[in-house]
Structure prediction request, 1242 residues.
Amino acid sequence: MSAVDLNSVPDEKLGKTENLPNALDQIWSYGMTSNSFGSVHNISDSYRKVLILMEISHSYFILKGIFYASANTGIIFEHQTGKQHLLQGHCNAITATTVTSNKRWLVTADTGVNCMLIVWDTLPGLTTPVTTKKEGSSVALSTSASLNPLPIKTLFDPHPGGVLACVFTADNKYLITLGSNEPQTLSIWDWTQESDENVCTCTIQGSLQVINTLDLILVSIEINPRNEGELMTTGPDAVNFFVWSKENGIKQHIPTLNSKDFKNNELEFTYSIFLPEVDEAISGTKDGDVVVWANKSLNNLSQTLETGKRATIKCVKLHTGAINFITSVSKKYILTGGEDGFVKVYDNHLRLLLWFERLKAGPIVSISFNNNNTSPDHDLPSQENILSDLDIPEFVVSTKHGKVLKLLKQNSTGSSVAAANLIQQALIKKSLSKGNSQNGTKTGAKAGLKKNKEEFTWNKEVNNGLNSEIEHTNIGSLGILHDGMISRELANTGNNENKTTSTKTTPNSASNTPSVKVLLEVQYEKITCLSCHPKKPVFITGGHSGLIQLWNYETKKLLGSRKFEEVKKVNKSKENGAKPNKEKKASEYNDIYESLSISCLAYSDSGSIIGVGFSNGFVKILDSRTLNDYYEILSTTNAPPQPPFPYPSKHEQKLNAEASKVKSYNGQKLSEAEKKNNLIQISKNAIIFLTFDVTEEYLAAGDDGFGVSIIHREPVVGELNTQEQSHNNSLDNTNLKKKSLNTSFSLSENNTDSFKKKEDIKMQWVLYGRNQAHFQNIVALMFIPKSDPSDEPVLISVSYDRNVAEYDVKNASISGGFALKSLNRIEQTAHPLAATFHPNFNREDEKVSASVPASAKAKLVEEKNINATTLNANSITETKDAQVKNEEENLNSQKLENEEALKKNRINTENFLLISSTDYKFKVYNATTKFCRKTVLGPLYGSPLTNICMIPPETHAKYFAFSTSEKVVGITKLPLDGNPNKFMGVIAHPNEVNETPTFDGEYLLTVGDATVNQWKIQKSSIEIQLSFQAAQSVLEPYLNLVDNTNLGKESPFYKEMEDYFYYAQLRSQGENSTTKRKILDRVQLDQVPYIFQAMGFYPTKIEIENLLNEVKFSLVEKNFNGLVNSVNFEDLIKLYVNHKPAKNYTEEELFRALDDCLEPGKKKNVVFGDEVGKVKVSKENEEITRDGLSALIELYGESFTEEEFKDSFAEILKSRRKYKGLMPDVFTKKEFVEKMLFLEKY
Prediction:
């Protein structure tokens, strides 16, 4: 990207970096917190619909939306238009959400460090309260309004540790919150006031109310609709009631369980509500029961208890499994959602009226209705009920499986078109009546009708887009429990097998039964992998749920999904508790389907196939368009290739899935063995890396057992015809590979008859072998890019064990296995965490002449002059014309050869690795020689970078994305030089995060927990920030990293470094010399380590070697030969900042390192002080011996000899009065660090 023109930047932003746009701007979230009860809110509002219809949108857009949390972001999703509003600001995962009764104000709250609670206004343009005024028969707003959520109040640390649940009172004046601290606190807030202090608070006595079971937040608050001064909280082991007032505060009441049955059976509560028409409350349990709490005791039913005091009067079974959610509607009906996936409707006496059992969307966790089903203007239609004879409006259901469904009336179109038409007709009717009253003639009525018809023209473009996605499915069944109950059959249309008989029937037909529309479908368990298509705006995700989803990130549409499960046989007698029969019979076993966790996904370079790695060590190859198992046929006919076709619709995917069961290719049906071969077992450990080579001939896999495997694509044995097989029998394995990949090897214009008789060649993926070159986790696995298509594939792996392994892919085979080519150690103390390919230091699009070194250019000029002189001399003699011509041709030929040689010797034929490590450093290595070419300081965002990837396309201004182990993702610009202004990061997720750029480099997709966020990459932010720096000192960003005074060149650090810089010049010229000294702006390279040691940085021998080599070969980056033997002052400071440790070693780290010398003479399985795969807390008062310390230093690292050990510590201890230059035989670790080494504690 070219530099940004500062003239285009507003004046008010110049010099104000805090006003810069973020380098990453979130535009979409593919996810939902589906493990929290009651967390999805239906904010569609009939009142708001009318207001927005009449005042805001001339195309008469009707708002239909849901509000939910996605990790640390609140989402308002307008499912009608497919638009998201992102409520950002939280650093931690949102654990509590609520809305006011009019659905205007929302609340998001989180738990964790730096927790907060934010109140949002969805219609900030409206006055408060919202009012209407009558103008004739029309409805108008006093101000304009728009859906533009803005934060209007923020509470920092409302409870120690955060908020687990919150709710508004019915009048929306007070907000009640439940904290996550122990013991828990309950607080009341007057959120409309400016004060951040709560009105009252209390500490909850009794059982702890917070228990996370299966990651479900089982806690809630409910307010009594009959008395806003009474509250109820629910936790797994306790239900408590509270009464509160502003004057008297909060008083807690612990209810009693009177029945002996309740005391004998331990109840685990899930959710509770107050009943609207009776003074009772009910609590659901994990067993499917509801406990009824009344203001009377079974001991004396005639006496009413004090307000807030409750007792159990009965327990009723409502579900076969846990009851996850309970709500009420229309003051007449109670709806329950269960773990069985059913939604059941009861009356206030808990008599079953209706249930929906065919949702098949997973356990229900939330049910939410619109604000109301009546219009503020009675001339306008109210919202339709799902059934004509039940006062139950359309509602939204969410499940644990990441689905949000809307239940609506069957004969409705399910879209906003029907609602718009109803409102249109009502308003036209009003205008007609208005015209009649004003004009008294039919002409006035016709004029009014014509006018309204023009005004109420529906946006056809939006309408068509909506109808194309609406899917209706008849759901539910109704049972008959009593005479007064409605009898209805909710079977699929045309299905007469499940009809129930009853004594009472209704005229409703199956076509009038409720239907369902899927509003949202996302991943519902942790997403472990994401891969972007290399050529299309498509990405795929997979995770612990065994579900893979294919998304289009431009349209934000789900293209397809597939669920992977494994079948396990469970003995029936074992399930019933009986002893299993020794004779195994198939009838005695049940098939149990369990999700097959997906651990890795990877597209091939062409994007035609997808590699899927599972946690059980298996690998499967899929077709990227259909997500079906991939079987490849190389046709030997001369039929033209089929053109690419778009991704299939859901209906086509269903047909493909059915067809795949009997699918055949060219009349050849796939056998069960062939289908089984598509599932390849690599290891018993999870597959964590998959990568294809450019030719898609090889697939490499890295597993969690530190092994790397190679899979090869080759023909199925026996699929070639007899003539071809006899010909191939004489070929070796390598030739067979090459021949099988060339589909035209046997085709000839003169041999059409012969090839028509040949059968098509089936291809298969074959495991050649597995090699375990590492003993710790693999952090990167990649094929080195080929500079020439004929080059052999080179596979390398980078591991946490500090080693880079290169494998012999070319000679891999089933019989010969998969061998290791080389193993190189690249780090001493730090551990690699991530790696990718670094773009070549030279620009590929530069002209060859620009990259030729100056010495080579001079040689070419000299040759040119010699050639010209020779030609002129020879032209004088006419008798030597032939000789001159020959010499000229020879010289020109030699010149071309020299230029070609220069081209081949250019550095841009090298490949480089970029590796980030635990010491917050980036290091660039030659991929072939493993030679360290550069070391720079990375971003200091709390934790080291765990993932890095280049952002395509690689233009002149190259960028790459990075992420830390927690929360932060960002981008930076190449070349890396340690400048902190080149890094920009944002908090993307509350926990672990990973990132992948799209193929066009426009977006960055980040993964955290069960959420994928899409970010717009704004490279101009970094360009503007660097433009601001251009007007400042070049060294200022570097000095701020090592000096806290912010004095720049006047700081003590700068002055001290400057003194050493000039003193080093004196040392290089001889300290005792009497000759005239030359003070220059450069210092000799061999003096740099001494300057660093004088400044307090003591590099190891390898670090010194890497530092000196980096400077020596720095001209290579600029395409010039020759070595650099000196460095100027600016580069010296940059080298110091980039190479010195980013953080000082802690005392605990030193103690852990000394653990290795507790037992002298015994070699431990250690890696520079850390036990393999284990970090333990060291005891500071443990004693170590001199012999043990000596053995440790002599065996590991840059080892000392025994004499060097004695001399070094004699020099260190000679100034210590206690030791007098002698090391004691036994001493504690703390004494060694603090007394002997005299290291200060940080």
Residues 914 and 924 are 5 Å apart (CA to CA).
